[in-house]
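User: Here's a protein and a ligand (NAP). What would the complex look like?
Assistant: Let me lay out the input and then the predicted complex.
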Amino acid sequence: MDTLKVLVTGSRGQLGKEIYHVLEKAGHQVIGLGRQQLDITISEDVLNTFKKYSPDVVIHAAAYTDVNNAENEQEEAFKVNGAGTKNVALAVHEIKAKLVYVSTDYIFNGASRSPIPEDTEPSPLSVYGQSKLEGEKYVKEILEDFFIVRTSWLYGQFGNNFVKKMLEAGDRLQKVTVVDDQFGSPTYTGDLAEAIAKLIMTDKYGTYHLSNSGSCSWYEFAKKIFELADKEVTVVPCKTEEFKSPAKRPEYSILEHGKWKGNGFEEIRHWSNALEDFLTHYLISS
Ligand SMILES: NC(=O)c1ccc[n+]([C@@H]2O[C@H](COP(=O)([O-])OP(=O)(O)OC[C@H]3O[C@@H](n4cnc5c(N)ncnc54)[C@H](OP(=O)(O)O)[C@@H]3O)[C@@H](O)[C@H]2O)c1
């Protein structure tokens, strides 16, 4: 089968929208449902909608993603990321589709100092991370076969993200202060969507770590954004403890791509190449 019927939850979000476009361009029949069309916290709506469309694959990109607010809205975060994902997994089981659940590096505590393999014991520092991990547990409990895709530091053309924030700041300010003691892999949503598009054509189920390759600190990331965008902005390094932020974030969240490479997929390009590519197109179109 060359083309599939794919249903995307959270299709108005940063990643969901990108996945929608990438899959549609690849010739798949894509049903994109934003929160208005499908609230994943209402179990009967999830089941009825999945039965109505009967997709081959469900890509579950809907989530409560406000990491700081989740600290005060614990119930809502768990309702969407935990119970909502349970609803999605149960409905996927009922209609016998494939599921891709998008998860996060924030399920880890950041204590590692080498790239994190997929089988590392999760230990989230934040409510957001805990709620996403609960989603993973439901997926594993309910389904025999599934794709869990953990990713990190997303940016792209849709939604709000660090790259867009830096570009906007660069239009107004000559100086920005950015933390230099958190390390990760910036990931372009276009590359992640392409990787997910490859995965769904296979039965190579399991838990994957997918991010652009290479790594940096947020400080290095910001410097690269301004360099590539040709903006003269001074980036001042600072420490996480200087920023009062409600949610704790992992210091180190570089994901190892063992399962991806082990299953014969080509390593995803370096984050700086992806960023350059993204900025070239984004800056021309905006
Ligand atoms: N952003 C990152 O850096 C990052 C890193 C690692 C993993 N992830 C994961 O990647 C996935 C996509 O994230 P993103 O950056 O695209 O986030 P996003 O832009 O916030 O998109 C999430 C979407 O989910 C929708 N949503 C929230 N509650 C819902 C509900 N009850 N029912 C249906 N839809 C609901 C949101 O709708 P509203 O706008 O109406 O609230 C939003 O459109 C998430 O699973 C996230 O945990 C993100």
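Summary: DSSP finds nine helices and twelve strands in the chain.
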